[in-house]
Amino acid sequence: MTQDFRDPDALRVRAGIGGDPAQDQHFLVDDRVLNRLPEYLSDDNGETTHILEIGGGTGALTDRLCAVADQVTVVERDRRLADFLRKEFATERENGTLTVIEGDALDVTLPEFTASVSNLPYGASSEIAFRLLPLGQPLVLMFQQEFAERMAADTGEDEYSRLAVAAGHYAEVELVETVPPAAFDPQPAVQSAVIKAVPREPSYSVPNDEFFLLFLKAIFTQRRKTMRNAVRNTVHISELDDGDAVVSAADESLMSRRAGSVSPAEFAQLTRLAWDVGEPAAKNRTE
Ligand SMILES: C[S@@+](CC[C@H](N)C(=O)[O-])C[C@H]1O[C@@H](n2cnc3c(N)ncnc32)[C@H](O)[C@@H]1O
């Protein structure tokens, strides 16, 4: 990008807000990172029509998003920052490019967006990501690096986790760059990383998304145990009434493995079996 953008340091001075790490306020101050983030979107297939940004901060990323999008909606929980964004971007608001929503990204009504580009508040990044993923739009999200790696991992890798299977249920997730603490002010204690999530239908089917995610959560709490023990020991989480029936009906060799080697399609197959023979409470909730 050759365009002149608002200087991130000048924005922070004008806002008069230093950033409170306890409120997940780590503002991006590295222009190269800021300029690259919108470039992970493609403008060919409408991704830039309406961009949602969660956690606007002092607006350095908002500014870059306004330059590529027809419309931007930014959600900011901190009243002082939301007030500053309204003033700083008065022109963009008047010409209909920008809408500022003051509130918690976990509670507010979200607009119909075509993509989200966000440097997420790390304290709520999992909840926010799993609010956005089911909405089926491309996402470019900054997380703590460890979290991003777990989300993007493939079966059998050390970082492979419930997060990878759950996120992969909605999208193809790729870690596109790592970002050092020096790119932020105040600096976070850990490395960060950006993922791009491209929505897609999974190659398998499950009878019920809620139960699939609950079952994964249960099994991965016992990732060092065999699947047999993991299914049996976690019925209080998966809410299976008959975990033994699932173990008896499942493939013997699958039950001898550990969660880290079980592919999403195998988890889906086991979920279908558990739905049929394990009497999950989630089934009653759908009846
Ligand atoms: C990591 S900062 C990113 C700020 C800015 N986008 C940037 O890149 O410099 C996260 C922002 O999210 C805001 N925030 C924290 N929790 C939030 C929540 N639950 N909903 C909406 N915004 C939140 C913080 O006030 C902060 O401004």
From TrEMBL:
Keyword match Transferase: yes
GO cellular component: cytoplasm
EC number: 2.1.1.-
Organism domain of life: Archaea
Binding site for S-adenosyl-L-methionine: 26, 28, 55, 76, 104, 119
UniProt-listed InterPro entries: KsgA/Erm, rRNA_Ade_diMease-like_C, rRNA_Ade_Mease_Trfase_CS, rRNA_Ade_methylase_Trfase_N, rRNA_adenine_dimethylase, SAM-dependent_MTases_sf
Main location: cytoplasm
Coiled coil ranges: none
Domain Ribosomal RNA adenine methylase transferase N-terminal: 33-201
Key words, A-Z: Cytoplasm, Methyltransferase, RNA-binding, rRNA processing, S-adenosyl-L-methionine, Transferase
Pfam families referenced in this protein's UniProt entry, alphabetically: RrnaAD
GO molecular function list: RNA binding; rRNA (adenine-N6,N6-)-dimethyltransferase activity
Subcellular location: Cytoplasm
SMART domains: rADc (SM00650)
Family per record: Belongs to the class I-like SAM-binding methyltransferase superfamily. rRNA adenine N(6)-methyltransferase family. RsmA subfamily.
PANTHER family, A to Z: DIMETHYLADENOSINE TRANSFERASE (PTHR11727), DIMETHYLADENOSINE TRANSFERASE-RELATED (PTHR11727:SF7)
Physiological role: Specifically dimethylates two adjacent adenosines in the loop of a conserved hairpin near the 3'-end of 16S rRNA in the 30S particle. May play a critical role in biogenesis of 30S subunits.
Full protein name: Probable ribosomal RNA small subunit methyltransferase A
Organism the protein comes from: Halovenus rubra
Gene transcribed to yield this protein: rsmA
